[in-house]
Amino acid sequence: xxxxxxxxxxxxxxxxxxxxxxxxxxxQQTPVAESNSSASPSPTPAVFSLQTLAExxxxxxxxxxxxYAYRQVAHLANNIGPRLSGSAQxxxxxxxxxxxxxxxxxxxxxxxxxxxxxxxxxxxxALVQFxxxxxxxxxxxxxxxxxxxxxxxxDGIVAEVITVxxxxxxxxxxxxxxxxxxxxxNYPFDKQMAGEGHGDxxxxxxxVYRSGGPSAAxxxxxxxxxxxxxxxxxxxxxxxxxxxxxxxxxxxxxGAVTAEDADLIVDLLRQGPVxxxxxxxxQQLPDVESYNVIGDIKGSEHxxxxxxxxxxxxxxxxxTGAIDDATGVGVSMEAANLxxxxxxxxxRTIRAIxxxxxxxxxxxxxxxxxxxxxxxxxxxxxxxTDGGAGHPLGINIKGKPEVxxxxxxxxxxxxxxxxxxxxxVEHCGADIEPPEKAGVTAxxxxxxxxxxxxxxxxAADTLDKxxxxxxxxxxxxxxVAAYGLANMEQPLPR
Length: 494
Ligand SMILES: [Zn+2]
Fold this sequence. Notes:
This protein has about 500 residues and is α/β, with parallel strands linked by helices. The chain is built from 14 helices and 16 strands.
């Protein structure tokens, strides 16, 4: 997940949703489904035929009992591994997903896109001067480079460290207090907020230092910038992620220290001056030709109308990109797989997309919308799964208010696996932001995000973090929502 995502809170709404929505959903279903009682004057036109509702239930059951998505995630994470844009693994994963989508009978296209090829190098740091230091010893600091970071000299930088908690404190410092130093932005990720299901909000608050911190420090003459990792892990793991250098400041080396190391440095700084030796030697290699992988199940009645189900295929390189975002690709492939296996005929085209380069530039998403801009009006809906593999509680919607009532029957079916909440949000996914802006109704699963940011962008983003049952529930949400949208009897309001 890149930075711009405000999502709904999982926990605080749960009791409410169970209380509020369940009865209403039932009430709604009756009038929306075909009713042939002559008593009630002009029933609202059916949004879903009874046949579609029956097929949705079959799809849901099939999803809950399938391990196809899990096997795909396992292959991407374990057999292929970290898939940073431009890497051999990313290229391998393009071929793999394309051949799998072909194998389940999708019409497959590889959509060409040039992507940046940033590679990590040596990344070490140690405190070489600090209060209470034992003679000839250093204090190791655990860190990683931020995506797009420039390099230090090969033998590193040795400089004094200063720390600030936020941009205001940074701005308040006179230049001579910053110039020639290493700045640490020590903004803690709000673990309590995440534990209450507000993981996305906590992420949104802290990630601004990852993207904007290095340039803010550089503007005042800093020689390097470190941030406190954006995430809730307590296992001394650094969280990587893209930094966005501004054009009005020199590019300086940028890294993320673990939460534990940020606390250590801040404690020592309270006691006296601290000096660090920092070595970061990443490289920005020439851009590489890569692809979005697109697999279509053509619609039987409106093949020109498209429902996107998607996730991003690239990942950061510290872990194996299992929860971020082999999951999103796996559940999107599963939706197509189940529809084909059940020999269902979507009326509109269902398009499974594995986006390239979401993590460090969104080149894949931008290229797709550039190539398909003329078909924007034919994009009926767009869905992205990029919030991990936690238990789903329902569907986020970015669209007109009426959409909620129209999808109530779908929510009622998904309520069986505890995913019956429909919730409006500002934003559903980085790769589907362009259509969102163009008025295409967007969707994403509402997922329990309490633990997601413990592993997000770390070496611990690995297959074991996925509970197969929960992944199957996520597949059910995506497959049922996508097929429901493909067979709606009415268009979605724009
Ligand atoms: Zn992601």
